[in-house]
Structures are given as structure tokens and as C-alpha cells.
Amino acid sequence: MLEWDDLKLVLAVARARSITQAAKQTGLHHSTLFRRMADIESRLGTKLFERQQGDYQPTIAGLAAVETAENLEAEMAVLARKLAGQDLAPSGIVRLTTTDTLLHAVLADDLAAFTQAYPDITLQVVTDNRFYDLNRHDADVAIRPSNAPNDNLVGRLIGPIKSVICGPLHADDPAQGPWITCDETLAHIAAARWRDKNFPGPHVAMRSNSLLNVARLVDAGGGFAVLPAFLAAAFDNIGVMGDPIDGLDNDLWMLMHRDLQATPRIRAFNDFMFPRLKRRQGLFAGGLGRGSEM
Fold this sequence. Notes:
By secondary structure, the chain is α/β, with parallel strands linked by helices. It has helices spanning 4-16, 19-26, 30-44, 60-84, 100-117, 190-198, 211-219, 229-232, 264-278, 281-284; strands at 49-52, 55-58, 92-98, 121-127, 141-145, 153-161, 163-168, 179-182, 204-208, 225-228, 238-240, 250-257. 41% of the residues lie in helices and 22% in strands. The longest helix is centred in the N-terminal third of the chain and has 25 residues, at 60-84.
């Protein structure tokens, strides 16, 4: 017979397709998870996974177990949201997912002010390029770019984020380079593809898996880059080269699951943060930079 804890491990392996990666996600040592999975299969008397070309692929029995685990996970998330909605006062934990760029350039001061205004609320802030799944209760609130928010989420649009060409103050022609850009882990970002198309010739001096790193390197004089306008404005030694680039807009949203919107701690966070972010629309749109140079 399987317990919920067993099913969570089965689901982790199915999603990661790897014992090692699933162990990292669950906080177990890989040898411990390997033994746990062997014990689960022994109790069931059937294999749940076959290893194919390095990946753990669910068997027919494994697929049935994964489906059950996903259904239970969804039901547990619904229960957690409903229980969270029983809170009577703004207290407890608010789990926020955002990007490192937004935290550094915009959010840090306001988050500190929020915790001072609501000392009974603890903020758990996770910065990641992944979009944490609010439906699975990975986070309570998301403040991040998204041009297609999930229909199950309650969204409040802050405004468009525009991107700009920037470089060190008093820099010359970006067509001459050098450039700093994203590595392959961020190749999906439209700004990276735009740079590769419009400036294919100049030397790329540095690449990074973080836009915050790219901005810091530009600030240090390392070269030119395409950055969100708000991020460029956060550094003293970055100059903006001309107007925002057409076609690279991303909408900035504050998102939460609809089951949580009336929870006192979530409502308190929403009511505190949204007006402050809304007042920064000009910053996100590139209207409050440190000047431009051509």
C-alpha cells in the first residue's frame, strides 16, 4: 500500500526523470531516494520506472501512480489554499517568487518596508528564472514578467517592461562592440535573439546566465548589452543608448491564485505592493533612466 509520502517521491522522480535530480528537489541523498524507490516497488510487487538512455521513464504501473499522485497533489494544494483563507489576521508566511533583476533594481526597499509595516508576516522570497507554479502552491504571489498569465490566476497588470541598448557611460558606437549577452540558458529571452540578429558582427566579450550579472558587467565597463530599462537605471555607470527597442515589451504582473486573494496576509501584501509598483510604470517603460547617449 502506498502512502502520500511514497507518491510524492514517485512524482518527483517522474518529473525529474532522474534519481539524482529528484533527490536534490526532495532534499534526500540520492542513495536514500534510490533505496526508498526500491522499497516502494518491492511493496507493490511491480516496477514503476524503466531506465532508458539515462532517463527514468514510468512504466504502465508508474503512469498510474503518477496520475494518482498528481490528483492528490492538486487536492492537497486546494486544501492548503482553503485553510490559508481561514486566517483572521495578516500573519504567517507570504511566499513570493520574482526575478533577481526585479529584486535588485526595484523590490528590495519596498519588501523591507512591508515587513516593517507587517511584523507578523514573514516574507519568503525566491528568485528564479523559472515561473513557479502558483497552482501547485509553490508560491503565493508572483511579481514577474508574463505575456500570458494562467487563467486560474488573479492578475494585476503593473505595466510594460521595455528593453534598451545600453553601455558604459560615454561609450561609443555599439556596432563596434564589445558586447555582453546571455548564455544558452537564457537563449529564449527575446532581447538575446534581437541582439544576435541586429548586431551579429561585434565581438561578444562575455556571456552570463543572469541578466543581473550582465548589467553589473556593463556597469564595470565591460561592453554593451540589451537590458530591461529598469535594470539599466539601477546602475550609476550605465548609459542608455537611444529609445526603447520596439517589439521587446514584456508585461509586468502581480499574480496570485484566486483562492488566496482574500487571505488577510496576501491581501495585505497585494494592497501594500501594487500601488508602489504602479507608480513606477515610467521606470519600467524606460522613461526614468539616467539619460541617453548616442
